[in-house]
Structures are given as C-alpha cells and as structure tokens.
C-alpha cells in the first residue's frame, strides 16, 4: 500500500502528539512493507526529500513558526497549503491520511484525491466547534466554517478518542472510526527509573490550553503543608516565561524545577517512573498520550474534568488516577490522593494501547477506505 500522511509539523524536529502518531505509525507500516510518505514543512537540515525511519519525508514548505503569540499561525497554515498543492498532486497514493488541524491543507488533499481517485481519510484529533468563538472572538465563525469544510471533504473519518469520535460524528453526520493513539510498551519497559525522585511531574508543551499555571498554584498549596514537595515541569513553549514568573511570585523556586524540552523519550520515561504522580491539567486535550505513557510507567495521573479534555477518558477515576475539577484547591487535593494509588492498575490499563496494535487497526481502516466500506459518501470530493 502506498500511503501519504499530510501534517505540517514533522517529528522529531517538531515535538507534539499528532506528529508523534504519524511517526510511530509510519515507521511500523514501513517495516511491514508499505510505502509511507509524509508531506510536511522542511524542518530538518539537508535536502527536502529524505528517508527517515522508513518514511519518505517531503519538506514541501519552508519552516515557519507554528505559533504566534501562543496561537497557531494562519500565515504558516496558508504557506504550507500553498506549497503542498503541486507536490502532493504530482504523485498517486492508495490513501491520503490528513491530520485535521490546521484545516486549510484539506483543500490540496481533496484536489489530489479527486485527481487520482484516491480515498481521503481525515484523522480527527479534536473538534473545536463553539470553542472557536472563545479562541478567535467574532472571527471564530471562520474557524467553524473551515472545520465544517474538512468534514464535508473527507471520504472516511478516524477519531483518536471517544470524545473526538462523538464530536466528529455530531459535526459530520457520518460514521467515525475510533483508532486511539498508542504507546511503545517495549521501550517503556526497558527504561529504568531516574535517580532523581519527584512528587509531581508534568511533561508537555507550555501553551495556554495546557493550563500549567493551575499545577503551579496547586503545588503552592501543597508546599504550604509540605515545604519539601518537589515538582518538575518538562517542556517549552510560549507560556514558559509567564510560568517562570508565576513560580517566582509564589515563592516556589525550591519546589518547582523547569527543565525545558527533553528530545529523548527514554529520559521522559525514566522521569515518569521516578515520579509519584503525573499531572496533566489541560483544559483542552485531543488525546493525552503523556497520560497513557505515565500509566504504562506505573505512575497515576491527575487530570481535570473539562468539556474538551479527552485525557479524562484515559483515567479510571480513583484507580489509575484522579479526575479533578479545575481549581487549584481541588487539583492539590487530587495530587495528594493520587499518591496512594497502585502502579499495577496503571500498567494494566495502559497495556491495551500498544502502537503495534494501533498500526494493525490503521491498516485495516485504510483497506476499508480503499474498498469504500466506511459508509461516508464518496461523492463529497471537490467538484
């Protein structure tokens, strides 16, 4: 099978959950004999067309910042869309898998699919809906229209979480297949815990929707009772300086360590195994793969109950973690309670999400799409 993935940010040069999914699936499908291509921005040194981990990378657009003032750049999305059109249409694939956000590249994907009579699969990581009004104000109507257009142009839909599956079905009215993100269980099992123990660990981007300030304020409450509490924040992003200022303002320099991005996943797993609790305070999470990885490391997870936080579906409240309300006091209480939960339950729950299993499900999904068996109307291609 000849497969084209379309997503502007390419792993490992640009970290993130969506690009991690594409990289993990691409490597496994390539190992199984499929020909896998990834059309993205040219983020690596060297020529724009290279082989990496069994995947042919097409750097079709110059690298430009994904975020401006903490928000996804519309200019970047337009640039990638413009540069994608010709090279994607120049080749024929058995299936095109478009990662749904940013929405604009769906148009060259649909044109290429129509030209070569190729099924267009859209993998949905989130559905924003009315959240666009909060994100862009009056201009949110444009975001909602673009999201709706993606739904209309797809031949088949895949969602990575039950929350996104429900929201995608409501948006499109079409059948939506659930294929979750996964974890590399063998890699996680092979890693020893780090020597540096921490009470609370966060790993992820430092952007507003990750809500890391909630964690810092919760740690301040814990520190009032336990001055020796230790929290480590691993990641980088536009919110970094604001979070550092908050740590200083709350007098938490001794309790909170900010260590930047760790490119090696084994280092992340080692930290997870050395932590009592993993914190994921996101108000909006399309899946929450770090929560799953933490559970596979035997570490309970504390996340929040929010309408757009799909990570809450990964936590068995009171067994593999705690789902908290979105206040510093409640989150602090949840962090404290999660320390008493057993690691065996966490490991058992995470075992169902191995990337090898997800790759098999993905191939079966592509075969159904090629056969036209998803049930989504094929007449929705670009006219």
UniProtKB/TrEMBL annotation:
Residues 15-186 form the Glycosyltransferase subfamily 4-like N-terminal domain. One of its GO terms (molecular function) is hexosyltransferase activity. CDD domains: GT4_GT28_WabH-like. InterPro entries: Glyco_trans_1, Glyco_trans_4-like_N, Glycosyltransferase_grp1. SUPFAM superfamilies: UDP-Glycosyltransferase/glycogen phosphorylase. It holds the Pfam family Glycos_transf_1. Residues 196-337 form the Glycosyl transferase family domain. It comes from the Archaea. This is Glycosyltransferase. It comes from Halogranum salarium B-1. The lineage of its organism: Archaea, Methanobacteriati, Methanobacteriota, Stenosarchaea group, Halobacteria.
């Amino acid at each position: 099978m000849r497969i084209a993935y379309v997503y502007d940010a390419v792993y490992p040069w640009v970290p993130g959950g969506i690009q991690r999914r594409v990289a993990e699936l691409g490597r496994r499908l390539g190992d199984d004999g499929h020909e896998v291509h990834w059309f993205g921005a040219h983020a690596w040194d060297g020529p724009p067309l290279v082989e990496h981990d069994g995947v042919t990378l097409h750097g079709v657009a110059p690298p430009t910042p994904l975020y401006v003032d903490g928000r996804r750049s519309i200019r970047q999305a337009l640039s990638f869309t413009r540069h994608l059109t010709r090279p994607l249409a120049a080749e024929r694939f058995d299936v095109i898998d478009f990662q749904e956000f940013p929405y604009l590249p769906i148009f060259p994907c649909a044109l290429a699919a129509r030209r070569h009579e190729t099924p267009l699969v859209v993998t949905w990581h989130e559905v924003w809906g009315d959240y666009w009004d909060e994100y862009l104000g009056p201009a949110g109507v444009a975001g909602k229209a673009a999201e709706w257009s993606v739904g209309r142009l797809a031949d088949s839909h895949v969602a990575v979480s039950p929350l996104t599956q429900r929201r995608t079905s409501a948006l499109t009215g079409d059948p939506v297949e659930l294929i979750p993100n996964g974890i590399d269980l063998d890699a996680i099992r092979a890693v020893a815990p780090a020597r540096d123990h921490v009470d609370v660990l966060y790993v992820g981007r430092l952007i507003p929707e990750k809500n890391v300030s909630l964690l810092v304020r919760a740690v301040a409450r814990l520190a009032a009772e336990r001055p020796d509490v230790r929290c480590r924040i691993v990641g980088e992003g536009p919110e970094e300086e604001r979070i550092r200022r908050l740590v200083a303002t709350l007098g938490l320099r001794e309790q909170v360590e900010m260590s930047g991005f760790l490119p090696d996943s084994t280092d992340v797993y080692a930290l997870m195994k050395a932590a009592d609790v993993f914190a994921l305070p996101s108000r909006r999470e399309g899946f929450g793969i770090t929560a799953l990885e933490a559970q596979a490391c035997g570490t309970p997870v504390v996340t929040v109950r929010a309408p757009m936080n799909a990570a809450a579906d990964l936590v068995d409240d009171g067994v593999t973690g705690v789902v908290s309300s979105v206040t510093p006091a409640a989150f602090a209480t949840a962090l404290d309670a999660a320390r008493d939960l057993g690691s065996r339950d966490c490991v058992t729950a995470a075992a169902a999400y191995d990337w090898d299993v997800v790759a098999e499900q993905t191939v079966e999904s592509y075969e159904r799409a090629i056969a036209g068996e998803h049930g989504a109307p094929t007449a929705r291609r670009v006219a």
